[in-house]
Write a structure and sequence with these properties.
This protein is mainly beta. It has a single domain, classed as Porin (Beta Barrel), CATH 2.40.160.100. Helices cover 4% and strands 45% of the residues. The chain has three helices and 20 strands.
């Protein structure tokens, strides 16, 4: 259920400041629409990044053994189930393009990923002993070229009209995240039309999103399709108000010794009357679209999210809190089969991020905290499949509902690109859910000049589950993780990074069924990026 709720905050990426510089990759509300001025000179703006990563993952299954469902906590080597080391490497070329009309008040934006997390060596031409090249085809079913976003923006006397498929980020990115960061892997996008205006130094936005539509049929010309059942469309209506300055304005005010307070609030309502589950539930044979397969769903969801930021010359505090509620009148995925009881959900989550130290200083430190509501059902429910059944006690993953016996799913899930660690939540669980954590962190600029800088970052994460029944070990404490990293960034956008992480698991990750104590895990990652 939370997979649908996570996308309810979708209007704010279309909020716009009318005179600031523009970046086509931006998804935050205050960045979309920047540069739409009648005197804009550029006809085309192009930016992007080519990124490569290599990883060594050691013992991420924690020597835990198999769960009651017969699965390891994390994949293990096929040739040696007792082995501990896995490797991975991938690359991505991301391009962001903006094209302006002659007078600068109309713009079309596009994001095209030429390769998106393409695994190195995954498209060989020939057998392992004969291949000498990589085939420019598909990898893991994905095309080499993926059009991630395309949307238009127009400046009118009353505000900005934005429409198309656009990215979406709100606040800290805890819940709604466009995935624009250097190390991000996914990101939210919405098919949306929105109107944004500015009143009394505040942005006000109204948006309508079409999130899902069911079976379609081709028209006579074979180049367009037709939606066969409008009642199964997933719709979202959003209203937002906020006050936010961009990073350039923050830097200027901070340099002048002025504190800056920004804030915002958003409300979203999402609904789906009927459903056609055979469009997304795997089946053993092809099924034709028939009226008997349309079933009542009765889905209604509400989301409220508030965000606050204080930036002072030597201190920064940012906080976000969200409450999500939903009702599904009929949760069955099988036409003709009814549970007869509704599913409900009430979820909440929040983060507080702090940093002490001036931006220009060589040293800074802070303490972050976060919480995501949980559910007493076994497993964390972080990444369940649409047709996955309920978890068994001791499992790591599984549905948090089991109608008609368990009809509530209350586990809040952070966006997977909101990263707080390297191993536990990022790799093993998949995201922060049913947990609370504290995260002290520090930064030291080891070398800094006009050519670039070399930075050492160190963070530690102590985490605990809210419900012991959700953990494999039936205990709340999850682990303590230490994550140091080195980052070099040149003035011409070359970036080199080295990440390390070590997780010391606690009782919540033990295998109590087989009396196995979880062992530490390690991760090493090399990042190379060429920006333009």
């Amino acid at each position: 259920m939370n997979a649908m709720l996570r996308y309810t905050l979708t209007s704010l990426c279309c909020l716009t400041a009318l005179v600031w510089a523009h970046n086509a990759s931006a998804t935050e509300f205050s960045e979309i629409g920047r540069g739409l001025t009648p005197d804009h000179d550029a006809a085309v703006e192009l930016s992007g990044e080519f990124r490569l990563r290599g990883e060594r993952l050691q013992n991420l299954d924690l020597d835990h053994g198999l769960t009651p469902s017969g699965l390891p906590l994390y994949p293990v080597p096929l040739g040696d189930p007792d082995g501990q080391v896995l490797h991975h490497s991938d690359m991505r070329l991301r391009t962001d393009l903006s094209m302006y009309a002659p007078f600068g008040s109309v713009r079309v934006n596009m994001r095209l990923d030429v390769v998106d997390n393409l695994t190195l060596g995954s498209t060989p031409l020939g057998t392992p002993l004969t291949t000498t090249t990589q085939w420019p085809g598909q990898s893991n079913g994905q095309s080499f070229m993926q059009l991630k976003r395309v949307w238009g923006e127009a400046l009118t006397p009353f505000g900005v009209v934005a429409a198309g498929r656009m990215g979406n980020t709100w606040g800290t990115g805890m819940l709604s995240n466009g995935g624009d960061c250097h190390d991000c892997d996914s990101g939210d996008a919405a098919d949306r039309i929105a109107f944004v205006t500015s009143q009394q130094n505040h942005f006000i936005a109204l948006a309508y999103d079409l999130g899902w539509r069911g079976p379609q049929v081709q028209r006579k010309v074979q180049t367009r399709s037709l939606d066969l059942e409008p009642s199964d469309n997933l719709r979202t209506f959003t209203a937002a108000i906020l006050k936010q300055r961009d990073e350039i304005a923050l830097e200027r005010r901070t340099a002048a010794g002025k504190p800056t307070v920004d804030y915002g609030a958003v409300y979203s309502f999402r609904m789906q009357n009927n459903d056609f589950p055979l469009e997304y539930v795997p089946t053993t044979e092809d099924v034709s679209s028939e009226s008997s397969q349309v079933m009542a769903r009765g889905y209604r969801a509400h989301a409220v999210d508030v965000w606050f930021r204080l930036v002072a010359p030597a201190f920064r505090l940012e906080a976000e809190a969200a409450v999500l509620s939903a009702t599904i009148e009929e949760a069955s995925l099988l036409p003709g089969v009814s549970y007869g009881v509704p599913l409900t959900s009430l979820q909440y989550g929040g983060v507080v991020l702090t940093e002490v130290g001036r931006p220009e200083s060589r040293v800074s430190a802070g303490l972050d905290v976060g919480l995501a509501s949980g559910d007493s059902a076994p497993g964390f429910g972080a990444t369940p499949a649409a047709n996955q059944g309920p978890a068994l006690p001791g499992d790591l993953e599984g549905s948090q509902v089991n109608p008609p016996y368990d009809t509530m799913a209350n586990n809040f899930r952070f966006h997977p690109d909101f990263r707080i660690d390297q191993i536990l939540f990022r790799e093993i669980i998949g995201t922060v859910s049913d947990a609370v954590y504290i995260r002290p962190h520090a930064r030291v600029d080891l070398w800094k000049s006009t050519a670039g800088k070399l930075t050492f970052n160190l963070s530690g994460v102590a985490s605990s589950a809210l419900y012991a029944t959700s953990t494999p070990g039936n205990n709340n404490p999850l682990g303590i993780e230490i994550d140091p990293s080195l980052d070099y960034m040149s003035r011409d956008k070359f970036r080199l990074g080295l990440d390390y992480g070590v997780l010391f698991p606690l009782e919540g990750l033990d295998n109590v069924t087989q009396n196995i104590q979880a062992k530490p895990a390690q991760l090493l990652r090399l990042r190379i990026a060429y920006g333009f």
